[in-house]
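Researcher: I'm comparing several assemblies side by side, and this is the next one on my list. It has 418 residues spread over two chains. Same procedure as the others: predict the full complex and return the structure.
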Amino acid sequence: MKNGYIKQAWLVLTLALCFGGALAGVQLMLGKTIAANVEADAESQIPDLVFGPGQAAKMAGDFSAVAETITVAGNGRQVPYKVYRVTNKASARLLGWVVKASGQGFADTVDLLIGLDAGASRITGLYVLGQKETPGLGNKIIDAPWRAQFTGLRTDRKIEVVKAAPAPNSNDVQAVTGATISSQSVAKIVNEAVEALRPVLTSEAN
Amino acid sequence: MPDGPTPTERFIRGILPENPVYRQLLGMCPTLAVTNGMAQAMTMSGAVLFVLLCANIITSLIRGLLKPHLRILVFTLTIATFVTIADKFIAAYLYSMSKELGPYIPLIIVNCVIICRCEVCASKQPVFTAAADAIGQSIGFALALASIATIREILGSGTWFGYPVMWEGFDKWVIMVLPPGAFLTLGLLLGGANWIGRAFAGRGRKAVKTAD
């Protein structure tokens, strides 16, 4: 019987091995280029995230952003976060932080860049680096007006996702209509990253 | 032994007479989703050309070894591999376009045009015929996408390939770059294609009648 199965399936198995090898080869060839593209995209967003859109043009060239990896223990595991330390080029004064965080969205992983002020007390911006949410619904999380809701929110309280317009001074964000899960995923990723890194970043700032 | 249309005939048929979008009504999903701009539409067409050509060639090379009850599995395996390769290339060399097209490049795996050509043509024909069929169908697909994308981009954004083509102060038809505009444009063009098809067929029949 086992012979029968192999006889039937040998072509599929062989193809699977060959195609797997081909894909591994392509990944070896292109993996670095793709990672560099994502890096460049992330770094191009840093001015907007830390200084706010529009302000970035004024600050061009006056700041430097250095990437570091901060590992935080959580849930019994060590979770590495990529954090950019943004400092004034001349005086080396700390201007803010940009944190790269990822998590499960509705369909696939959602990658975010979160801008924090120097004291890690307020969020200064949010950018979606990568997502595969439902086009027209969940992928509205990339729209600037929706993301702008996160600017100015506090880091000492969890961000909640609500259906109606959020009350002023509440730490709430209105969900994308028809895409509650995508909206909640973004809030969850931000909450987790902020909760994990706030102690580390506030101590570094002092 | 290969029967039916020759490679050249298959190539020409794929462009208009058996156009995958307007005649076979296949691949509707990318047709509606990525045609709000010519650049996106042409990137999608290029990716489909690459995948269709490679999938057809590989399928044709192994056509003698295919078991009937496992053939769909083999087609899907082949198509998925080439789509992943195309996706990686686009992410590496056309990164902003990759972000814009989002999940639609991986979705080429379920594009019916490709699995249909594998099943109907590549699994039964020699390599050159399969390749000609693939190229013809891809050109037809590209033409279909281009026709819809041109209308949607010019009316919806006032540009073509990103270059402004409408006069200053043109009031953009925003609905054209949204899904309803896609459905409207596709529906109207499909009706137009049917009408043209019938007009040509009618003329052919009239010519035959008068010749009698």
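Model: For your comparison table: Residues 7-211 of chain B form one domain.
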